[in-house]
Amino acid sequence: MSTPQIIPPGSTIGILGGGQLGRMTALAAARLGYRCLVYAPDEHSIAGDVAAGYVRGDYDDTDALARFARRVDVITYEFENVPEAAVVACLEHKPVRPGVTPIHVAQHRLREKQFFATLGIGTADYQPVRNEAELAAATALPGILKTCREGYDGKGQARVHDRASLEAAWERLGRRECILEALVDFRCEVSAIVARGLDGAMRCFPIGLNDHRDGILHTTTVPADLAAETLAMAERFGLALAQGLDLVGLVALEMFVTQDGTVLANEMAPRPHNSGHWTIDACATSQFEQLVRAICGLPLGPVDVTAPSRMENLIGEEATD
Hints:
The chain has 321 residues and is of the alpha+beta class. Helix content is 29%, strand content 26%. It contains ten helices and 15 strands. The protein has helices spanning 20-31, 62-70, 84-91, 100-106, 109-118, 132-137, 163-172, 228-245, 279-282, 287-296; strands at 12-16, 35-40, 53-56, 74-77, 126-129, 143-147, 157-160, 178-182, 186-196, 202-204, 208-213, 216-222, 249-258, 263-269, 309-312. Strands 9, 10, 11, 12, 13, 14 and 15 form a seven-stranded antiparallel beta sheet that branches. The chain has a four-stranded parallel beta sheet with strand order 3-2-1-4, with helices on both faces. Strand 1, helix 1 (20-31) and strand 2 form a beta-alpha-beta unit. Helix 1 packs across helix 10 and helix 2 packs across helix 3 (84-91). The longest helix is centred in the C-terminal third of the chain and has 18 residues, at 228-245. The N and C termini lie far apart (55 Å).
């Protein structure tokens, strides 16, 4: 079996998506000696502002994607809603890491939950609600009804208490393909961010203790003040997910911790994660540097905590208050 080729400093990394995570990745890449070329459909890109170049193009423009891919040595994506077809189109020309499978799984909530189950990763009880028959058969109440696609940060979902509210919520969500997840009596929420390199080596950043407000991450605290057994379970699930996806790059797994310390997976993101921003200032290797190391075949960096930290996730105007 041949060893995957290392992509050395001086090479160019392509980034699909022009947002804040792409910006932070480009800054980390520059410190390691790499150039970045950003591709996104927007007129202005905050990632492109700090990259060596910016290509504006639609995600369904295969010719533009091909021209972009030919200018880089490896490609990654900075958010999981880049169309899967765009990733496949790029893969015809250059390696795309973390790859197609992680984005295929992450873009569909029911598929995601089913994938967790195949890896032995626990979840809340869930049921598909894709048609009238499944709506009538659904029993995971009280629960949260979520669209299978395109929902994030509390969007595309509704809390339901009984059958009447479930039926009304499905109507409000456009009778789309949904998943009904039973409510979890959880003590707190945590996240594991795992890097996996070209050689299969894996590193899990210390587990972050998360606080959400209105469905959006508010703070992350590290070290997490939880039982060692709970932290070990969360790390084990993160590592199992990275291995199961066969990814090269980063994956974040958000989880609930129940009152008895059991860990249940909520959702994944195959990219740097807002709950990992603390690593920029309080970890031996930031999550963004670790992503660059992984996709370029460099040794993964250490993940030792250099100082206890509490990160506050500032959104929009909060950053200037």
